[in-house]
Amino acid sequence: MTPAANIGPLVRLWGISASQLPSPTASSDDLAPFLVSILQEALPFIDSAAPRRSRCDDPSSAAAAATTAAATKNPWKPKGVKTSPADSAAPVEVSERVVGAGELETVVARALLNDETRKKTQSRLGNEVWACRRSTHADAAQKGTASWAEFVRCFRDEHAAAEDGFTPDVVATCEAISWDCGGVGPVDIAEEEDEEEDNVNSARQRWGRFTLKVVEMRHKVGRPVLKDRTFPVLQLTATVVPVAGEAGGEPREFVVVSIPVPDFGTKEASRLAREKGAQIAAYVSVERIRVLDARDQQGQNQGQNRTGKAGEIEWLMATASDAGGVLPSWVQNMAMPGIIWKDVPLFLKWIAGERLRKDAAMVGPRGGTEATENTTATSTGKSAIGEGGGVSAPKAAAASEEVADDTDVTNKIAAAFDAARETEAADFDARTGAVDLK
Where is the stretch described as Disordered (predicted)? Predict the structure, then answer.
């Protein structure tokens, strides 16, 4: 599948409008096409960052050669490997992809949008810069890694609560709307389409256990001068489910897709975005978490050059964001690859503390002190632009050395942050009546 073919109008940084959301009382029949449309965009896009497996069992075959050739045309460009041995046993691979304005114009042109939506979308067209991280982890509830059950609980079932737990900058969360997806039956989606060979791979995945909700989160980015940022997103989760009569064990894979709803503050259901003076920001993300199998490991030997063994958990997440306000987008985009990887050690450190706290509760007061000491020393390197990652202005400034060794570029980043702070500081003074006593 060509890079241009795996992008669509829904999973985009421009987001969707509140008027495009399903009715809160939508039936399963009404929800199903909407859920499938999101999945059909999100799955090939995230798969392009880390193709899921070799297309055949024979590494010398033409299909295997095609897989290797496709890897060399991957639109995701490597941005290095990061490590944090104190908290994570796994290195984190970082990459970046630019979806150009021209590609996005094509998406808008072929999308079935009404005139008003088309005009609004075209007015926001520009390069969309995505950052991606990938890591693989032993399936174990121990220091430096996490078990499959913990990943499922924290990222599929309790996503907002977990983000609130291991993200120091989250100051408020709200689940504004939740749809009943219980009646939406499993759907089959082809794993990949081979345009060059004019056929569709017979391998398909069956997706079910859908959830759909609007979540609002507010992050602090430099109080009291810089305003908090509020992120309203439509969040979908879906899980690979077994096919009746198919050999093999229970599939272990799920995705989380977050799409901005920039005007959600106009809805009565909103609590955070509709607050007076709220600074609305946006992020879009696709997160894929799965257990690798033997075919995935074979793919490592066919030019894909990635870490991971059969039985390990792959954690893959890609995001694009816009903090809004006066912070230049080029600063955010340049800093993002140096920030996004920190989610991994942050989560693993937090989940280790959660285990200690649980153990302490089971053994009584004697274990309380140790648990408290370990769980309160939470790292604060997490970005503050939405659940899936992104760019926090103060964190990105501190990380400028990581994202640019060139002194001139680093100085430009620092200058841009200073200008942004001065602008928002002036706004803060105007709002509070502050007086310069110099």
Answer: 50-88, 362-405
Q: Which of 223, 182, 185, 228 is nearest to 207 (CA)?
A: 185
CA distance 316 to 314: 6
Segment 388-427, tens digit of pLDDT = 333 333 344 333 334 344 455 555 555 655 565 556 555 5
| Domain ranges within the chain, ordered by starting residue | 3-325
Crossing angle of helices 159-166/343-363, nearest 10°?
Answer: 90
Residue type, 279: Q
Question: If pLDDT is split at 50, 70 and 90, which confidence band does 51 have?
Answer: confident
Q: Distances from the Cα of 174 to the Cαs of 17, 170, 281, 391, in angstroms?
A: 19, 11, 16, 21
d(CA 2, CA 196): 9
Question: What is the length of the chain?
Answer: 438
The answer, yes or no, to whether the previous bond of 224 is cis (omega within 30 of 0) is yes
To the nearest whole number, what is the mean pLDDT of the chain?
79
Strand segments, DSSP code E, in 49-165 are 77-82, 92-99, 128-137
Note the pLDDT of residue 393: 35
Contact 287, 322 (CB under 8 A): no
* Helix %, strand %, coil % of the chain (to 5): 40, 25, 40
